[in-house]
Amino acid sequence: MLICTSMEGKKKILNGNKSKILIITYYWPPSGGSGVQRWMYFAKYLKKLGYLPFVITVDESKASYPVLDQTLNEEIKDLKVIKTGTFEPLKWYSRIITGDKKIGIPQGEVKTNNLFMKLAAYIRGNFFVPDARIGWINFAYRAAFNLIREEKIKKIITTGPPHSTHLVGLRLRKYYDFNWWVDLRDPWTDIFYNTSLYRSKKTISRDERLEKQVIQNANGVITSADGIFIEKLKLKAPNQKFITLPNGYDSRLMKMTKSLPKKNGFHIVYTGLLTENQNYIVLLEVIKKLSNYYSIYFTIAGNINSDIINEIRSKIPKVDFEYLGYISHSKAIALMKSADLLCNFIFKEAENQMISGKLLEYLATEIPILCIGSPDTNTSRFLLQATNVCIARDYEKKIIEDYLRNLIDFVKKPKNKLSNMKNWSREEITKRLIREVLIES
């Protein structure tokens, strides 16, 4: 018998299969990146709070993981994980595009610079529906079918992207009676880069049909952001139950991770994905100007195209620029803590579709944040709840310059505080998951 205490202090007795939860996810440690961390932490804290999570994922030796972070394995070493084979057409696509079958599809953008890339985008958009991980469906389905029968599991979570993962849940629905929640970390058919994939009307119709089948047949839908994201989904499933659970930050990791050595000058840091779909040029123009008067350091960490890194170097010749490549999650936290300013660039055409998972970690450091994008977005409205955040459009160069000058000239560096920050920790959000999804269902 297991006992789980909710935030209100009420005790729920969890007997046998009522405490068991099956999480089906393509991304799992040692895969790196922000997408993997959401259910890694949910699973970790579900177990801590009295539940028994099972995870079905893909064998990393057969997966198309663009980056690896072996340090994340420490977070899930006590969990029950089943790894399956897969058929990965994505590897051949990657080899054609990049020459390396391990790199995978570039995240957050679709390159169509020439005829060859346009053809590749067309193949990606029309032959891999809903996405290029469709080859994993049969493997995950067989593993889940057997596990549900053996463990008599009654609660299942499927999480995407890749949204083909949800088709596993849809197929299992035909044979088992269980409570199934669909977690949409990003939009499905409405994701902003789909417009660059040259999708035919037939492909679009098919993908929309799959999305509707999934969200209408699930017991509920979890999203990482609300607003327009959920409003569009409600039009497709008016009677469905929708719950928003953000990604959060790990308070334990934040406390135990020490900052990297501080720079002598003003240190600007950016971590995460950076693509041509983000407006970063205006920041380069501002810091190039300020570098004539101040000592400025600019550090970037993430899996970023070399063309963008070379462009940055060329535009800020007097700035001490360092590109670290992809670094482990704990090192990324240490880097954030060393900054005088943390930067974020909102994706063009995706202003209200998602809130970057790193932003809660940015806020937890209490370091000032500059966000380039419209103030009228989910991300901006959330960030503006904190005490030292500047939101500026890409053409508002004077606002950005004045903000940086003020920060640089401060003798005592200001803090950036968000009230009730502890409510955004991974553990507290897991308690919400228990209260709003697992207990209620």
State the separation between the terminal residues, measured CA to CA: 20 Å
Number-wise, the strands total 15
Indicate the CATH architecture of the largest domain. 3-Layer(aba) Sandwich
CATH homologous superfamily classification of the largest domain: Glycogen Phosphorylase B
- Put simply, the count of helices is 15
Order of SSEs, N→C? EEEHEEHHHEHEHEHEHEHEHEHEHEHEHH
User: What is the helix fraction of residues, given as a range?
Assistant: 25-40%
Give the count of structural domains: 2
| Helix/strand class | alpha/beta
Give the integer mean of the pLDDT values: 88
Instruction: Note the main sheet.
Output: 7 strands, parallel
Question: What is the overall silhouette?
Answer: globular
The Rg value, from CA coordinates, equals 22 Å
Task: Please provide a brief summary of the model.
The protein is an alpha/beta fold and about 450 residues long. The chain is about 35% helix and about 15% strand.
3D structure, described in words:
The longest helix has 17 residues, at 201-217. Helices cover 37% and strands 17% of the residues. Residues 1-15 have low confidence and may be disordered. The strands form three sheets. It has a seven-stranded parallel β-sheet, with helices on both faces. Strands 12-11-10-13-14-15 form a six-stranded parallel β-sheet, with helices on both faces. Strands 1-2 form a two-stranded antiparallel sheet. α4 packs across α5 (165-172). The protein folds into two domains: 2-248 and 425-439, Rossmann fold; 251-421, Glycogen Phosphorylase B (Rossmann fold, 3-Layer(aba) Sandwich). The protein has 441 residues and is an alpha/beta fold.
